[in-house]
Amino acid sequence: MESRKNLAPAFMEWKNRYPAIKDFLVGFSPNRQLQVCNNPEECFFGNSPTLASINIIYEKGTAEIWLSAEIQEACLFMGVREMPDINQIEKLVKIIVVQYGYLKVDELQLFFFYFCAAKYRHFYNYFDPSIIILSLRDFLNDRSRAYEEHERREREREYEEWKKNAITYEEYQKLKRENQL
Length: 181
What we know:
The protein is mainly alpha-helical. The protein contains ten helices and no strands. Helix 6 packs across helix 7 (86-100) and helix 6 (62-78) runs parallel beside helix 8 (105-116). The longest helix is centred in the C-terminal third of the chain and has 37 residues, at 129-165. It is elongated and about 80 Å long. The protein starts with 8 loop residues before the first helix and ends with a helix. The relative contact order is 0.11.
């Protein structure tokens, strides 16, 4: 486990807020999805830790433990007839952490909320890990659109700021003639 003094400042903030793994797991339990879903913008553009950073802040395997609880809660909610076995969950969470370690925990909680709300694919009575992976890909498409929209709004805001200080070519020529440039 990495000592506190070796953690980056952003990681230290999380370690101070949630000092132990248990604190993090309680603070980010699946029940938190109901809060997260109210502000998707904050999920995408907020500062919650990524899966990869959780394993640095705490210890390797923390992200997998956290994801396991999210998956099990989704299965319970959806009423799958047979809960996934430990090997299915272990492999699924490893795939998600390796392939999507850049996702923030808030984004993943938003994903699981949407998944349970049947926004994406769903189980047909039986657990199928590929349904979660395919749904996660669908979520990433939505995430990309949210990022594009966010960037568009930011460019518009910057353009409006620029326009406040911009001058016409004629004004520029006049200032140049008057040696004010």
